[in-house]
Amino acid sequence: MRIFYVEDMVSWRDRVVETYLAGHHVVVAGSVAEARERYRPNEFDAVLLDFELPDGTGADVARFIRSAGDGVPIIANSSSGGRNQFLLSLGANYAVSKSSDTQLEGVLLEIELGRRRG
To answer: Could you give the percent of the chain with pLDDT greater than 70?
Structure first.
């Protein structure tokens, strides 16, 4: 799958990419500005989205993606359940806490199976 991953903590991002996203094509962004620059509508199969970013929040990125008319599945990935819930209210499809990131594999599998059916 093609995954757009927005996360500013490089060590965490590298760990997630190596552990859970190996075998996927991953494009990363570490800020809202970088996400706006690198994101292309209808180019990705999923977006993995942190909340706290150096120049804004994941909410800014979620709004940007949805305003482009892209229905790509967005996975909220914050350590805060409240922030994940907020991203869900803005159109994210899934929420995976950083404290239980092993759930990410299940969510990605669900998205992949949906792509194959759809």
So the answer is: 98
